[in-house]
Design a protein that fits this description.
Strand order of the largest sheet: 1-3-2
Largest sheet: 3 strands, antiparallel
Order of helices and strands: HEHHEEHH
Radius of gyration: 15 Å
Distance between the termini: 9 Å
Structural class: mainly alpha
Helix content: 40-55%
Number of helices: 5
CATH superfamily of the largest domain: Winged helix-like DNA-binding domain superfamily/Winged helix DNA-binding domain
């Protein structure tokens, strides 16, 4: 099961929303919230490419990054880790916390439930 660190999850959330962005665009959208230096953003992105979390495509000399990890699979991995390792509970037991949130659609919640039931949140 993959567990994403906070910095990686910040970038994934941004790319799930925008699909493809350059490192500068990622940095500009995150720096107000995170306070990261541009070099920090680049380091995290480069590590994520090496971990196969992001794809990197060159478009007219600019590298564009997109997520290789689906939103639902990443949520399932994080929820499973937190529930099982921190709370010592089954992952499905914390699923109701997401039903009143706008983070996931009803369809995404259904997919998340299936992944947690199958206990295979890996990509």
């Amino acid at each position: 099961m993959k567990k994403f660190i906070e910095n990686e999850f910040e970038i994934l959330k941004l790319l799930w929303k925008h699909n493809k962005l350059s490192s500068r665009e990622i940095h500009d959208k995150l720096c107000m919230r995170t306070g990261w230096a541009y070099s920090t953003t680049r380091t995290v992105i480069d590590r994520m490419v090496k971990k196969d979390y992001l794809s990197k495509d060159n478009f007219h000399g600019i590298n564009l990054f997109s997520p290789k990890v689906s939103k639902i699979r990443a949520f399932a991995a994080q929820i499973s880790f937190f529930a099982e390792k921190i709370l010592e509970r089954e992952a499905l037991s914390v699923l109701p916390l997401f039903t009143k949130s706008d983070v996931l659609s009803d369809e995404e919640l259904s997919e998340l439930r299936k992944l947690l039931q199958s206990k295979e949140p890996e990509q």
